[in-house]
Design a protein that fits this description.
single chain, 284 residues, alpha/beta, six-stranded mixed beta sheet, five-stranded mixed beta sheet, 9 helices
């Protein structure tokens, strides 16, 4: 009888080990320094909207996922070097990035905004509430002209290698004195200390900082989307590799993430997490 029980237990353990070994293993890279998209708690654990969303997507895909920290400016190179399989780091889908990697469908919108300290001469800038650079039109031209005049001679701080730096460097708002930083936290600190006249980043990055720090940071001008700012935030995945097996795995990963994002959206998971972390529904 005992032998029979032992035999049955052995089969059961073998069954679960087989299930475990068949589960897809995925490593996901994130920055851990771009709240509320991704950040770290006091104990150094990765937290934030994308960390929670990644875990939900992995449950849907029935995958064993590990989320790893990576500096922003090395994010795409690390993906290409196969340090991880996918990126979830507040990375907007842009034509420039699509030359190097591919993206899932977007899972959240990321509108950008200029921010200043309360009392700045840039407060009260008369522009539309939001402009989409892809759509263009008279409102966009008028807003860019107003911003160009307002930022003339000003120092604008921004995180390096971002869509926000690309926009400032594009010339759409004239020749701006751009000061770059390795992380958004550094941008926030120098804005608050007066080393920047203004800063440009995701609007929620500033509102999150203002709420948590108590600093009087205010958004000015319009929110930006489209054009250099891309078409929402998605999962970054390699286009292919050196062998057919690797290429097939990346293609499968893209398909699996797209299916999981669809399901998470339909189940209201993305909306719920967005409202929790952003204060509004940023799902696409």
């Amino acid at each position: 009888m005992n032998k029979l029980k032992t035999f049955g237990l052995g089969i059961l353990i073998s069954f679960f080990l087989t299930i475990s070994s068949n589960a897809e293993s995925i490593r996901i890279g994130t920055e851990g320094a771009y709240p509320p998209w991704n950040s770290k708690d006091a104990s150094g654990n990765l937290i934030g909207f994308e960390v929670e969303l990644a875990n939900e997507l992995c449950k849907i895909m029935k995958a064993e996922c590990t989320i790893v920290e990576q500096d922003w400016d090395g994010m795409i190179p690390a993906l290409l070097l196969r340090k991880f399989d996918a990126i979830m780091a507040g990375m907007s889908i842009t034509a420039e990035r699509q030359k190097t990697i591919t993206f899932s469908q977007g899972y959240a919108d990321e509108v950008a905004s200029l921010a200043v300290m309360k009392g700045s001469s840039l407060e009260g800038m008369d522009t539309p509430e939001g402009i989409n650079l892809t759509l263009g039109g008279s409102d966009v031209k008028k807003a860019l002209k107003t911003i160009t005049g307002a930022l003339a001679g000003k120092t604008v701080c921004v995180q390096t290698a971002t869509i926000h730096q690309n926009f400032l460097d594009s010339g759409d708002v004239g020749s701006v004195n751009v000061r770059t930083y390795k992380t958004q936290d550094e941008v926030n600190l120098d804005l608050a200390s007066g080393r920047c006249d203004a800063a440009l980043a995701a609007a929620v990055a500033f509102t999150d900082y203002a709420e948590k720090s108590g600093k009087p940071v205010v958004l000015v001008g319009p929110t930006f989307s489209g054009g250099a700012f891309g078409n929402g935030v998605g999962v970054g995945i390699r286009k292919g590799g050196d062998s057919n097996n690797i290429e097939k795995r990346d293609a499968k990963l893209l398909k699996d993430f797209n299916k999981a994002i669809d399901k998470a959206r339909k189940q209201g998971i993305i909306s719920k997490l967005a409202i929790k972390h952003f204060g509004f529904d940023a799902s696409m």
